[in-house]
Each structure stands twice: as structure tokens, then as C-alpha cells.
Design brief:
single chain, 177 residues, mainly alpha, 79% helix, globular
Length: 177
């Protein structure tokens, strides 16, 4: 089996993973909900508890990856570890859940920029009235721009992961101040 050439440096790999997670963007977008439903204590202890849980998940996935190295990930591991009578069904359901997760994650992350843009325009322009179709149009623009970037430009410009990582870091610091 031929091993494909690496196209990303270690820094770009970490930056890509950080960009995919976007945890600080999610925290910034839902911060008011956390404060309103439990106060500052919810945010502080919530982050600590979530960090511990995610470390446990990462260690479990690392153990699976060490024992069963595969490109398939969860659906392959569920097929290997399930009883023989339900291996195919378990693998299929796991793959479907992953696909639904990717779709919903993409939809939820891509709605954030249009909402922020319309919010900023509304805050700085008293004559602007945000309409639903404005948000939908910007949402579809970000969808198409992301697809075009991933299909045409990603292999030629892997440095953009580093730029995205730095933008996300700046967002984290802005949300903390």
C-alpha cells in the first residue's frame, strides 16, 4: 500500500484541527445563554468539566486508533468491536450519524457569520433593517465560498489554515476581554 505524500506541515495540521473545532467561536456565540441560565460559575466550571470529558474522549479514541489504525474511524471501529451478528448494521448506523453530524455542524457554523454581519450593520446603521433573505443570501454565499475553496484552493494554499487559526485565537482573546 502506497502512503500518500504529506501536504500539511505539523503546524498547519494543528491549525486545521483548531479551525475545525472552532470552540471559542461557539463559546462566544452562546456565552449569553450560559450567563443567563447559570451565571459566570456555569461558564467557568462548564469549561473545566467539558475539558475533562473531552480529554477522556480523546484518550479513548487514541486507544482505538493505536489498536486499530484505520482511515474509517468510528464506523470501522464499531464494525470491528460489535458482535458479528450486527456488525454491518452498527457500522451503517454509525456512518449515518457521522454524516448527519457533519451536515448539521456545517449548517450551524455557517449561520454564525451572516448573523454577526447583519448584527454589526444593524448596530452601526440606523437606516438598515435586516431581512431574513439577507441572512439566507449571505449563508449561501459562505456555503459556496467554502465549497469552492475546499475543492479548488486548499491543496494550493495550505497556509490559510494558519491564518484561520490566528483569527480564531484573536477571537478567543476578544471574547475573553
Amino acid at each position: 500500500m502506497e502512503v500518500p505524500a504529506k501536504t500539511l506541515s505539523p503546524l498547519a495540521t494543528v491549525a486545521a484541527a483548531y479551525n475545525i473545532c472552532q470552540s471559542w467561536v461557539a463559546i462566544g456565540a452562546t456565552f449569553t445563554l450560559s450567563v443567563g441560565h447559570g451565571g459566570n460559575i456555569t461558564v467557568i466550571y462548564g469549561l473545566i468539566i467539558i475539558a475533562v470529558v473531552y480529554i477522556a474522549i480523546a484518550l479513548s479514541v487514541a486507544e482505538f486508533a493505536a489498536q486499530y489504525p484505520t482511515a474509517g474511524g468510528q464506523y470501522h471501529w464499531s464494525s470491528i468491536l460489535a458482535p458479528p451478528s450486527i456488525r454491518r448494521e452498527t457500522s451503517y448506523v454509525c456512518g449515518c450519524i457521522n454524516t448527519i453530524g457533519w451536515i448539521t455542524w456545517t449548517a450551524s457554523v455557517l449561520i454564525i457569520p451572516p448573523q454577526i454581519i447583519t448584527g454589526v450593520i444593524t448596530a452601526y446603521s440606523s437606516s438598515y433593517s435586516a431581512q431574513r433573505w439577507h441572512v439566507v443570501l449571505m449563508y449561501q454565499f459562505f456555503n459556496v465560498a467554502g465549497a469552492v475553496y475546499n475543492v479548488l484552493a486548499l491543496q494550493k494554499a495550505p497556509w490559510t489554515h494558519n491564518v484561520g487559526c490566528m483569527c480564531c485565537e484573536n477571537t478567543m482573546f476578544w471574547s475573553l476581554t
